[in-house]
Amino acid sequence: MINNNDxxxxxxxxxxxxxGTVGTTRTTRLEKMNSIPYLGGDLRSILNPEYSDxxxxxxxxxxxxxxxxxxxxxxxxxxxxxxxxxxxxxxxK
Length: 93
Known about the structure:
Shape: elongated
Strand content: 5-15%
Number of domains: 2
Mean pLDDT: 74
Largest sheet: 3 strands, antiparallel
Strand order of the largest sheet: 2-1-3
């Protein structure tokens, strides 16, 4: 049963009704949460991003590390070094 005092039920109703995945009004709260496609189906878990093996040294104490599969290729790494002075280094794991 849906608790009428819970303010998040309105959001779940809105998301489920506009996605077209829940057609009946007698669905449980868990069924509604599992039917929202872009939330991954499980609201109780958090997925940590997987980072790449490459790290960009922008200054002597400031680094950025892209996500896996989003690291730049050789040309972009070289151009960033020549134009901006950013040094890309491969991290040994």
